[in-house]
Amino acid sequence: MAETTFEQKLSRLEELGEKIKGNDVLLEDALKYFEEGIKLAKGMEKELAKIEGQIEILLNEPELDAEGKPRNKPVLELFAEMG
Question: What is the pLDDT of residues 33-64, one digit of tens each?
C-alpha cells in the first residue's frame, strides 16, 4: 500500500464528514466513518506538530559569522519564557 499524502488524508476526512452528514446513512456506518475520521485526524495532528517543530527549528537557526560561529543563540518559543 502506497503512503498517503497529507492532502489525500484531508480529502478523505472531508469525504467522511460528508458521508456522516448524509440523510440516508445508517447509524452503524456513521459510527464507522466517525471512528475512521478520528483516527485520521489524530494522525494528521501529529504530522502537523512534527512539521511545526521543524519549521520552528529552521526559523531559529543561528546566523553564522565569517568564522562559522553562531552570531546569536537560537531560542525556541517553547522555552522563551524560562530564560
Answer: 999 999 999 999 999 999 999 888 888 877 77
| Residue 33 backbone zone (phi > 0: left; psi -120 to 50: alpha; other: beta) | alpha
Percentage of residues in the chain having pLDDT higher than 90: 58
Query: Is the CB of residue 72 less than 8 Å from the CB of residue 51?
Result: no
Residue 56, burial from CB neighbour count under 10 angstroms (0-12, 13-18, 19+): middle
For 36, counting Cβ atoms within 10 Å of its Cβ (0-12 exposed, 13-18 middle, 19+ buried), the class is: middle
